[in-house]
Amino acid sequence: MMKPVIAQFLGKCACFVFISLLSLQVYPCFGQGSGKNRYDRFHVGQIWLDTKGDTINAHGGNIIYYKHTYYWFGEKRDRHHSLGVSVYSSRDLYNWKQEGLALAHSQDTASDIAFGGIMERPKVIYNPKTKQFVMWFHVEVRGRGYGAAKVGVAVSKRITGPYTFIRSFRPNGNMSRDMTIFVDEDGSAYEIYSSRENYDLRIVQLTGDYLDVTSRDSLLFSNHREAPAIFKHRGKYYLITSGCTGWAPNAAALRVSDNLYGPWKLLGNPLKGKDSHISFYGQPAYIFPVPAISGNKKNNKAQSPRFIYMADRWNPTNLKDSRYQFLPVTLDTGQPMPIEIKWQDNWQLN
Ligand code: GAL
Q1: Which one-letter DSSP state was computed for residue 104?
Q2: Are 75 and 120 in contact (CB under 8 A)?
Q3: Could you tell me how far CA 17 lies from the centroid of its own chain?
């Protein structure tokens, strides 16, 4: 028998209200800026929560883009210890999902990456020839403070790991502390590293499989610099470094060159705004070239290059609580400072 129309209507309404209440319970904060899409912009220097609501713990690292997803690698820290290398994933660079530990410290006390030692400034790159992800990082050996001054290499078939540690060493016998990895347009990769007690900044080309260094190892300059971060724009290389004052902030310096092996021309501090003389209380970690998103249908124009300056605001009394400074690099600003990094409390990628 057919129900009267009014009863059918009330039944549908009740069902709708019930489902709505249910979804409110499941997603209590939907639309209120929490959960999966908590952020719609970068909040510079603020506590940054992952999609589970935990503070992101990925310092001194880098971001790579792979299969429509961004992956952020960084040092996992507790108050003082190094806890390995963590990895997060994101679709929009604002909201990050914890993917676990990409590289853990070894339980074997004889290992160069034994727990109690230090892993810093991890950088992951993809090798299309071997189809492997390769991680390079600064290694300090348990019980030796910052005395080992080595670089480590680990490898994985899966981007999120777990990575297998291969070995750590001093490139061509040179000390290697703060470092970064740069892959040029032709696919050749380089380690840029602080050497000779950080008085020298050096470069060495990696082998084609990215698992070792070659003998193309050269001094760039001797200026007591560290925390190198580099990018290429319109055929020129831009290299930002910090001074050497440990966890304490200092002024950054920009150098430019037509050639990775130099000569590098010193241009001064590219950071602009309040506290730029102490890098907004931060230290460079990496410069991420944001990939052009194809099909910018709005104006059908090719997207201009975009780079994100990634820096750490260290908290030496609780390293885990160190904050991040992701800021846009303003390009083509003319002479004498052809690029600039201006402080912003928050910003959106355009
Ligand atoms: C900084 C370096 C950091 C960390 C720290 C230890 O100069 O950039 O990565 O090594 O020293 O004091």
Answers
A1: P
A2: yes
A3: 45
First to last CA, the chain: 60
Query: Which tokens go with 118?
Result: 């230090």
- Residue located nearest, by CA, to atom 8 of ligand 1: 227
The amino acid sitting at 348 is Q
Which atom belonging to ligand 1 lies closest to the Cα atom of 118?
10
Q: Determine the distance separating the centroid of ligand 1 and the alpha carbon of 244, expressed in angstroms.
A: 8
Measuring CA to CA, which residue among 180, 153, 317 is closest to residue 242? 180
Ligand 1 atom with least separation from CA of 60: 9
Separation of alpha carbons 219 and 171, rounded Å: 12
Tell which atom from ligand 1 comes closest to the C-alpha of 242: 8
The pLDDT score that the predictor gives to residue 29 is: 32
pLDDT band at residue 2, thresholds of 50, 70 and 90? Answer: very low
Give the ligand 1 atom nearest the CA of 121: 9
Ligand 1 centroid to 56 CA: how many Å? 19
Q: How far apart are CA 209 and CA 188, in angstroms?
A: 10
**CA-to-CA distance for 333 and 214, rounded, in angstroms?**
36
Burial of 316 (0-12, 13-18, 19+ CB in 10 A): exposed
Ligand 1 centroid vs 301 CA: distance in angstroms? Answer: 42
Average pLDDT of the segment spanning 282-302: 77
Digit-coded pLDDT (tens) for 112-164 = 999 999 999 999 999 999 999 999 999 999 999 999 999 999 999 999 999 99
Please name the residue whose Cα sits nearest to atom 1 of ligand 1. 246
Tell me the pTM.
0.89
